[in-house]
Automatic annotation (TrEMBL):
FecR protein domain mapped to chain residues: 105-195
Pfam families on file: DUF4880, FecR
GO MF: sigma factor antagonist activity
Organism encoding this protein: Endobacterium cereale
UniProt xrefs under PANTHER family: PERIPLASMIC SIGNAL SENSOR AND SIGMA FACTOR ACTIVATOR FECR-RELATED (PTHR30273), PROTEIN FECR (PTHR30273:SF2)
All residue ranges annotated as the FecR N-terminal domain in the record: 20-61
Name this polypeptide is given: DUF4880 domain-containing protein
InterPro entries: FecR, FecR_N, Ferrdict_sens_TM
Length: 310
């Protein structure tokens, strides 16, 4: 039998193999799985080289989601995209490795937390987010490790307030703004007053209602259309306007238990528009299927595959 590749898994037979592999993977996640099932799994794995390819693909996607990379934000993009899927880290605390600064504050899946900072400012952390702070006599620094945070800044002309996310810095003396990390980009949205954004020597001055993204190694142009919608999570509403489905799935993985995995890159890149109420987390999957051209296949509460609706 010739060597199989991931591209062999995109026809009908490949879809069937993917579902078989996902079923086995989900079953083996259960610590109560009997030893006899491991024997059956080994027989299935060895019966056809394509079985091993399909299983390795599911395992690889899961593994990349479970391990926090050493670099933050946009550095994850290549690993996630080349895997042919879109994933988001399921947790913050357990995955931090040596050499990476541990967060001072973090949130879990579906959690929003408002933190009071030493200077009287506040940080509102979205789900699956983490920050570290470093406040001293001449400055106030916040490092966004993951997710998104909305900052309401106490004015202090002597100590600029700077939020760092990967190569991006967003500085303000006194204002309200959000900084976010997604698998595809870094983002800044200004709700009040002015913020200066810098990355790789380029500077942009944003004012109230402005938003800007950093992606593909550079700062984009300032936009105003989506600024309010991007902050919808603060009212427990997720707003996506012509966004890649992969972005939507990655965001939802911060709000729902388990992981959604999009195996088809073409589907992941497809742009969709959706408004999702996150007050009722249990209905998120149903809302996805009703509002978008996708089918969700659940293997366990931990693993759900997203495919195009036929």
């Amino acid at each position: 039998m010739g060597k199989s590749t991931d591209t062999d898994l995109h026809d009908d037979a490949g879809d069937s193999l993917t579902h078989e592999a996902a079923t086995w993977f989900a079953h083996l996640l259960d610590p109560a799985t009997p030893q006899s099932d491991y024997v059956r799994f080994r027989h299935w794995l060895e019966a056809d080289e394509r079985h091993a390819v399909a299983y390795a693909r599911i395992e690889r996607l899961w593994g990349q989601a479970a391990a926090e990379p050493r670099q933050t934000g946009i550095a994850r993009r290549t690993a996630l995209k080349t895997a042919g899927g879109v994933l988001l880290l399921a947790g913050i605390g357990a995955a931090w490795t040596a050499g990476v600064r541990r967060p001072d504050f973090s949130t879990g899946t579906g959690e929003i937390r408002i933190v009071s900072l030493p200077d009287g400012s506040t940080a509102e952390l979205s789900a699956g987010s983490a920050i570290s702070i470093d406040f001293h006599n001449t400055g106030r620094s916040v490092l966004l490790h993951a997710g998104e945070a909305y900052f309401t800044v106490t004015p202090d002309a002597r100590r600029p307030f700077v939020v760092e996310a990967g190569p991006l810095k967003a500085a303000a003396l006194g204002t309200a703004y959000s900084v976010a990390i997604t698998p595809e980009r870094l983002s800044v949205v200004v709700a009040e007053h002015d913020v200066r954004v810098e990355a790789h020597g380029k500077r942009l001055d944003l004012t109230e209602g402005d938003a800007v993204d950093y992606e593909n190694g550079r700062l984009g142009t300032i936009t105003r259309e989506e600024a309010e919608g991007r902050l919808g999570w603060r009212k427990r509403q997720l707003v996506f306007l012509s966004r890649p489905l992969g972005d939507v799935v990655a965001e939802l993985n911060r709000w729902r238990a388990g992981r959604l995995i999009v195996l088809d890159q073409a589907l992941s890149d497809r742009r969709v528009t959706a408004i999702i109420d996150i007050n009722d987390i249990a209905r998120i999957d149903r809302t996805l299927e009703q509002g978008l051209p996708v089918t969700l296949t659940h293997y366990t509460p931990l693993l759900t595959l997203v495919s195009a609706r036929h």
